[in-house]
Amino acid sequence: MRALAAAIKWIMLVSGALTCTMFYAAVAPDASFRSTFGDELEGDAARLVVRNWGVLVGLVGMSLIWGALRPAVRGMALVLGGVSKTVFIGLLLARGAQYLTTQARIAIVVDALAVLLFLTYALSVRPSTRTAAPV
Q1: Angstrom distance (rounded) from CA 27 to CA 72
Q2: What is the pLDDT of residue 78?
Q3: pTM assigned to the model
Q4: Distance (Å, rounded) from C-alpha 42 to C-alpha 27?
Q5: What are phi and psi of 85, to 5 degrees?
Q6: Domain count for the chain
Q7: pLDDT > 70? residue 128
Q8: Which residues contact 114 (CB under 8 A, 6 or more apart)?
Q9: According to the model, what pLDDT value does residue 1 have?
Q10: What's 102's DSSP letter?
């Protein structure tokens, strides 16, 4: 656990930087969607939603970087990143089986590892709520 606590800054920086790559979807929604899911976007509304998704996911990445550099907000950043990644994984596993042969499969593995490390770290540093037994 001490090794994880010592490395969490770098884990968050790497995870945050990888997550920030989704800003690409805001700039090139068709290419990003095709690269991640191996499918074509259809319609302007879909492009709008994918652009927005790219910005939101990119902001989660920025929050992980911020939390890595500012321990005071680390917990919030880990919760935000962990929940976002868990929802993405859950949705793909529940509703996106056809995408599990694309680059999305790599995202699932990397995100699952990040969530596992975030959760392990959070549980190992959480303050004890137990009180001392009366003497």
Answers
A1: 32
A2: 97
A3: 0.88
A4: 16
A5: -70, -40
A6: 1
A7: no
A8: 11, 15, 81, 82, 85
A9: 75
A10: S
Listed residue (17, 21, 22) closest to 54, CA to CA: 22
Task: Find where tokens 């090794």 sit.
Answer: 3
Domain presence at residue 130: no
Residue 73: give the domain boundaries: 2-125
Q: Are 67 and 77 in contact (CB under 8 A)?
A: yes
What contacts 90, CB < 8 A, 6 or more positions away?
Answer: none
Q: Which of 76, 89, 92, 96 is nearest to 116 (CA)?
A: 89
Is position 72 within any domain?
yes
pLDDT in tens, 83-107: 999 999 999 999 988 999 889 999 9
Residue 100 lies in a domain: yes
Output the six-digit token pair for 2: 């001490």
Give the whole-angstrom CA distance, residue 108 versus residue 113: 8
Amino acid at position 82, single letter: G
Using an 8 Å Cβ cutoff, are 89 and 115 in contact? yes
- Residue 135 maps to a domain: no
